Amino acid sequence: MLSQIVSALGVVVVAVFACSAYFYFSNKILDLALPVSDGDVRAASRNLNRRAVIRPWLFLGPALFLLFVYLVYPVVATFILSFYDRSGLQFVGLANYKWAIGDREFRQSIFNNILWLAVVPAACTFFGLVIAVMTDRIWWGNIAKSIVFMPMAISFVGASVIWKFIYEYRGGNDVQIGLLNAIVQLFGGTPEVWISVPFWNNFFLMVILIWIQTGFAMVILSAALRGIPEETIEAAVIDGANGWQIFWRIMVPQVWGTIAVVWTTITILVLKVFDIVLTMTNGQWQTMVLANLMFDWMFRGGGDSGRSAVIAIIIMLAVTPIMIWNVRRANRELKGH
Amino acid sequence: MKKSFLMGVAVAALFAGAAPAADLKFAPGQDSKFNWKSYDEFKAAHADLKGQPLTIFGPWRGEDEAFFRSVLAYFTEATGVDAKYSSSENYEQQIVIDTQAGSPPNVAILPQPGLLADLAGKGFLTPLGDDNSKWIKDNYGAGDSWVGYGTYKGKDGKEAFYAFPYKADVKSLVWYVPENFEEAGYKIPTTMEELHALTDQIVKDGGVPWCIGLGSGGATGWPATDWVEDIMLRMQPPEAYDKWTTNELKFTDPAVVAAIDEFGKFAKNEKYVDGGVAAVASTDFRDSPKGLFAVPPKCYLHHQASFIPSFFPEGTKLGQDADFFYMPTYAAHPELGKPVLGAGTLVSITKDSKAARAFIDFLKSPIAHEVWMAQSSFLTPYKGVSTDAYANPQMKKEGEILTSATTFRFDGSDLMPGKIGAGAFWTGMVDFVGGKSAEEAAGEIQSAWDGIK
């Protein structure tokens, strides 16, 4: 353990040193290669211009290189792989795409993903907004906020394990150790195996993500709400608006931009949802989602790189429009200010 | 700064020194039930490997990992090889990642011939050579079957022997608590018909006959595949079983559907299973047998492989507190004899090196088997080991089932392509227990199989 820590620290020190050294020396070399001497004024100004052109590339270089190696290349490679067979050696054209359209499990995953997309971002944003508004007015608001925010600190797998216990089912006459079943039993109902109830089990899994992400929505929206000028609310109060009207007509329109950011961020997260499904059901009982299906085809028993690549591409295509929209909106906002 | 760095080094050195210098469980040369001669011979033949690295990736975790490490200690001691063992809960995925990424371990140990065949087909495995396959054929019970389960087509399309079987499991076992049987006056059934009768009798007496748990995290459903395979071997000839595992015999074939239905007779009867049908899919297979030991017993019977005593309550004495009987055959099918369903882990070389070859050689020495045998949870079809080394008479009984087996069949789901045997088949069984008919479940598994062609 200790030796790991020591070596990890060593790596950090070396990396930081190497990075600074790169920037320092590459800069130095550039200066030496294109000298700005007193002698020839024209050459000096030409070199100065050249330096200005080269320097940003020098500094961005490592980042661009890493971006290419870890992002651009994999995307291209995945795209190419999606036209090859399971071993990635034989070109099969669009066969993998054709398979995807016809596959029952694939369509199930698409359906489930849409379900997740429809429910989770909306629920997180809604609860986040409501909690943010309500906790602003009570003395224990900050305590409540901390509690709501806390699940953010738990990993998806950790959260899933916690919720697994909440949904836990014990058969027959055993005492129910699952919270949900215990409550159901308390009110005279019959305990259920929640995570294997078709269709509805999707919602039981979604609850976990909502539980984790509501805190995120709450924090961002709470900050936005604070930014609403007091005067607008005061004016509304004077005009005789009730709480409901103030919320919907004054507050929501003013934080609309932030709501959109929260919504899209969670939407992208939902498209990538994986850990929760893997931990809770591994896609069984009709809870499969795209990311898990991709993992399944790639890594379970030998792997089919072609089909998993197709699914990866489809997930990427689904995320892209949201990303573009998000970036554009952010740009517009930047220009506006 | 310098001082604290030196301190760090000193402490690091202290900790490094604390790592055990290969503690051997049984002192070499002492206990006569072990074949120490084989150990000394191996040691003499592989003295030139000192300090060489060897990475081993395997499925064993928890108690089994400790056992395997105790065996590995002998290898380390004999050769001086710097051997490192690692494992993963999702070893099927991990090994695919590691091989695809080009950083495989030297030796990969996997319980799935289907997965190994896939890896061999992609050129990730190193052939072990004909002398090793001949050795298995000569020295293992039902050696031909074992060689078959380690022989795959390589990247070049040529068949070769890639995987060395080490550690086996017998699956055709039904576990029970002798005391409970005595108290209730039940007799061990010798035919499947009697087993059905016993099941009904237990219900009539107000008890619950079976504990069945299919839960296994991401692998939920596999215990049911064992049931179906065991039943297949008892209703169909072994040739049909072989065809089934390659899909020459379709899942939708009446023979397969009948086997699934037969399993349903036990698992889908509210009165037959502890906790009711709903609990079958959700109960973890590791928790499931605990019902046998409850007072009063929650169930009387549990179908599970020979590894399950690892999950019995601590202090359970096999033979006394818990025992097993052979999963009986149908009196209506006497022509099928007494088939044995089993499984095993197969050792293959994923990155060739001298140390890796030496490790395979090590597995041929009886001592590599006996050390683990003596600590329980290990069976071997190797005929050259001293069966006195088995930790208890029950294991010896199971071991003899293996060494004397003539009809031995490997776990079918492990032979099927990964997407089926470690996927659709599991899901199908969970769906079946969840309420789908055998035809529906089988149809879905078959369509998944059609999908991968």
Automatic annotation (TrEMBL), chain A:
Its main location: membrane. It is found in: Cell membrane. It holds the Pfam family BPD_transp_1. The chain crosses the membrane at residues 6-25, 57-84, 114-135, 147-166, 203-225, 246-271, 308-327. Residues 110-323 form the ABC transmembrane type-1 domain. Keywords: Cell membrane, Membrane, Transmembrane, Transmembrane helix, Transport. One of its GO terms (cellular component) is plasma membrane. It is a multi-pass membrane protein. It comes from the Bacteria. CDD domains: TM_PBP2 (cd06261). GO terms for biological process: transmembrane transport. PANTHER family: ABC TRANSPORTER PERMEASE PROTEIN (PTHR30193), OSMOPROTECTIVE COMPOUNDS UPTAKE PERMEASE PROTEIN GGTC (PTHR30193:SF18). Belongs to the binding-protein-dependent transport system permease family. This is Alpha-glucoside ABC transporter, permease protein. It comes from Rhizobium etli (strain ATCC 51251 / DSM 11541 / JCM 21823 / NBRC 15573 / CFN 42). The lineage of its organism: Bacteria, Pseudomonadati, Pseudomonadota, Alphaproteobacteria, Hyphomicrobiales. The gene is aglF.
From TrEMBL, chain B:
GO terms for cellular component: periplasmic space. It comes from Rhizobium etli (strain ATCC 51251 / DSM 11541 / JCM 21823 / NBRC 15573 / CFN 42). Pfam families: SBP_bac_1. The gene is aglE. It is found in: Periplasm. Its main location: periplasm. It comes from the Bacteria. Residues 1-21 form the signal peptide. This is Alpha-glucoside ABC transporter, substrate-binding protein. The keyword Transport applies. Belongs to the bacterial solute-binding protein 1 family. Keywords: Periplasm, Signal, Transport. The lineage of its organism: Bacteria, Pseudomonadati, Pseudomonadota, Alphaproteobacteria, Hyphomicrobiales.
